[in-house]
Design brief:
The protein is mainly beta and 197 residues long. The protein has one domain: Oxidoreductase, molybdopterin-binding domain (Sulfite Oxidase, Chain A, domain 2, Alpha-Beta Complex). The protein contains four helices and eleven strands, in the order H-E-E-E-H-E-E-H-E-E-E-E-E-E-H. It has helices at residues 11-14, 61-65, 94-98, 178-181; strands at residues 24-25, 46-50, 56-60, 70-77, 82-93, 107-112, 117-121, 131-136, 139-140, 150-152, 165-171. The strands form two sheets. Strands 1, 4, 5, 8, 9 and 10 form a six-stranded mixed beta sheet that branches. A five-stranded mixed beta sheet has the order 3-2-11-6-7. A hairpin with a 5-residue loop joins strand 2 (46-50) and strand 3. It is globular and about 45 Å long. The relative contact order is 0.19. The protein binds the ligand Nc1nc2c(c(=O)[nH]1)N[C@H]1C(S)=C(S)[C@@H](COP(=O)(O)O)O[C@H]1N2 and molybdenum atom (MO). Molybdenum atom binds next to loops. Residues 32, 78-80, 158-159 line the site of molybdenum atom (MO).
Amino acid sequence: MAVVSRGFSGRSRQQSPDLPPGQFLTEDFPVLSAGPTPRIDTAKWQLTIRNESGEDRSWSWDEFQALPIEEVHTDIHCVTRWSKLGTSWRGVSLDTLFADVETGYEYVMAHSYGGYTTNIPLADLLDGQAWIAFEFDGEELDPEHGGPARLLVPHLYFWKSAKWIRALVMQDQDEPGFWEQNGYHLYGDPWREQRYW
Ligand SMILES: Nc1nc2c(c(=O)[nH]1)N[C@H]1C(S)=C(S)[C@@H](COP(=O)(O)O)O[C@H]1N2
Ligand SMILES: [Mo]
């Protein structure tokens, strides 16, 4: 028998078609970090992409800031079941950063200042799907949320969006990162509820 929800106020937003299964909406911005917040001086900050040849492509903060900057409006979904709709960021597209990188490898390990890692297929970082974000809601990114800069891969669960990003290392094979070694799903699609494995 069909049960029709009347969508009383409050409930209706929890049933938004933009909300993946098993998620609820939050208006605030929870902080989820596995360890202490590293403080990174942008004068010493560096972002590196490493391919199989060992030739690093690196950007200083100033070089990074000189790249084309995009505005991103997107929903984010944490595996602990909160989702936040319509968030606003500014950052540099991974398409821009990978433009001159030659690689035959299909997987990436993201490495953060502080030691956090997470694995992502290269295809999920390209074609307008991922950014290195340094602003949230018109303000520079708080250190607690990954400032000075974090990875933003909004179509996957938010643990893939590595805060305090330091390097993207090309990998021959998909290997589990920090949370993936602790039981989180290797891929993490919120629409297929790929929470744990
Ligand atoms: N370096 C680093 N990145 C990280 C984490 C972390 O502990 N360290 N936590 C991940 C998890 S589990 C989530 S849900 C989001 C939380 O981001 P927020 O604290 O900005 O909400 O960051 C992800 N990126
Ligand atoms: Mo998370």
